[in-house]
Amino acid sequence: MSEMIRIDDANCRQFLDQAALDAAQQRISASLRTLQERSGPGSDFLGWVDLPIEARDNLAAVQSAADRLRSSSDVLIVVGIGGSYLGARAVIDALRPPFASGGPEILYAGHHIDGRYLRALLDHLEGRDVSLNVISKSGTTTEPALAFRVLRRLMEKRYGKTGAAKRIVATTDASRGALRKVADEEGYETFVIPDDVGGRFSVFTPVGLLPIAAAGIDIAPLLEGAASMRTLNAHADPARNPSFHYAMLRDALYTAERYIEVLASFHPQLQYVTEWWKQLFGESEGKEGKGIFPAAVSNTTDLHSMGQYIQDGRRSLFETFLFDAADDAAIHVPSAEDDTDGLNYLEGSSFADINRNAMRGTALAHRAGGVPNASIELNGITPATIGALLYFFETAVALSGYALGVNPFDQPGVEEYKRNMFALLNKPGYEERGAMLREQLGTR
Ligand code: PA5
């Protein structure tokens, strides 16, 4: 497989001297050894490392469930939050052409608690055949559990209990959690999230693969792309291992007090790849008072909003461009006799070329403005390159987390809002916290 991802760090170099890069390289080498020896914190959550190979064994079952959902549904609703929906959405949005028809519409629920959205979703489902893929590793997360309660009721009213059970697939733990219990009692088809794979690393399990396949995307090359990145990731050499290279640059920039990374895509269909990336890096690195804050923009749209800050604001950030270097969408600027819009100098140019020059111009402008930047260039947006890209980021964040000295595979901080929410909602067992919070809020 030809090179799927290339990193260009030319616009970083003036901000980092060789000694800083050498030190970062040493730290990332040590991280890679820790990962390979499985000796770091959270080593019982390294199941993701071999998924590109191991997931192949399960492909037939996933594909057959996906085919069944596709053939029986106008709409497939993926119910999940965080790692239980972002991977699927990232890949589906990246690879399903905008305005696509054919196959079920893929919609999402349980990724927030906004009632208006759910109300509008219920209205949208009128007269349409619906299937659900409800996804929760713990099987107890409030947001998807609430949405599932509402949607399950709709399904049972519409199709009867037995009919609904045929249209609901649950992806959850092998034995624990409320979702497992309901699925077993109701006879839903189920897929298992392995114990040793955390939510944000689960895109190559049925968590991601089932909805992706149900959207009509070929999952075999997705895994092949990830597998070829896994092979490259064995090298302790930034020139041969793109994840190592990226982690090394991030490490050097963090040491140089660049605490915010802006991932800037130039393709709107990659917006959810950047959302997935935010969760992956935010939850993996942001702990113990450490970590790079992951932010994202979608260009050139955001050059007309966030571009001002990036060019001229506080200099604590660096930028990573995400760009399809093989974009061949064949649309060209047409001729116009009058040239009233002054665009005749672009006549015959492809939009891909204009976008590429916007990216290059932005990178140089931001470098001149004091923002170190690198670019991740994709050799096309295909199942293989997207599979490679996601695995590239997974390895990079593991290396980065180890270099920071944190456990990249836990997320203790996400519990605190839940405890407060439960207390304020009078969940049994949270009475004392509820009283304390109400006092702080000044309410009874
Ligand atoms: O990465 C994570 O672990 C989290 O974002 C979870 O994926 C998210 O909270 C959903 O959890 P669950 O799959 O248990 O419902």
Tag the structure with descriptive keywords.
single chain, 444 residues, alpha/beta, Rossmann fold, 2 domains, five-stranded mixed beta sheet
Rg, please?
A: 23 Å
In total, how many beta strands?
10
Task: Specify the helix fraction band.
Answer: 40-55%
Sketch the major β-sheet: 5 strands, mixed
Portion in strands: 5-15%
> What is the count of DSSP helices, taking H or I runs of 4+ residues?
16
Strand adjacency order, main sheet: 1-10-9-7-8
Unreliable stretches (pLDDT < 50, length at least 5) are: none
Find the structural class using helix and strand composition: alpha/beta
CATH topology of the largest domain: Rossmann fold
Number of domains: 2
Describe this structure in words.
- The chain has 444 residues and is α/β, with parallel strands linked by helices.
- The protein is built from 16 helices and 10 strands.
- Helix 1 crosses helix 10 (242-255), helix 1 (18-37) packs across helix 14 (383-404) and helix 15 packs across helix 16.
- It starts with a strand and ends with a helix.
- The strands form 2 sheets. The protein has a 5-stranded mixed sheet with strand order 1-10-9-7-8, with helices on both faces.
- The model has no long low-confidence stretch (mean pLDDT 96).
- It has helices spanning 18-37, 51-54, 59-72, 86-95, 115-124, 142-166, 178-186, 206-214, 219-232, 242-255, 271-285, 307-312, 351-368, 383-404, 415-424, 431-441; strands at 5-8, 75-79, 105-109, 130-136, 168-172, 189-192, 260-265, 293-298, 317-324, 373-378.
